[in-house]
């Protein structure tokens, strides 16, 4: 996976032996589907429609964990155009997780629009 080719990457760092991670597995999968739909429907111009979910077992890939500065699991990280814009550590209810991710997407979308407006003036 090359996250610079993918516009939006939703990454889930987990460990199979962690009870909070086991609890978050289904929630992450459902939120990832919601996120893909949301991006395609609401943010096509600014962020594109490219979305990728990445599930990282920290026992299998400790280097990626270190690269992204992850100290604890479960951690969900949102990257946009190669930049980590949101990192959430710990278990959360589905609606809270989805709300935080959508808020970060909207914030980044507004920043992108402002930058394009400033360059066009």
Automatic annotation (TrEMBL):
InterPro entries hit by this protein: Thioredoxin-like_sf, Thioredoxin_domain
Short name of one Pfam family: Thioredoxin
SUPFAM superfamilies in the cross-refs: Thioredoxin-like (SSF52833)
Domain Thioredoxin: 6-101
Chain segments annotated as transmembrane: none
Signal peptide range in chain numbering: none
Name by which UniProt lists this protein: Thioredoxin
Organism: Arcanobacterium phocae
Organismal lineage: Bacteria, Bacillati, Actinomycetota, Actinomycetes, Actinomycetales
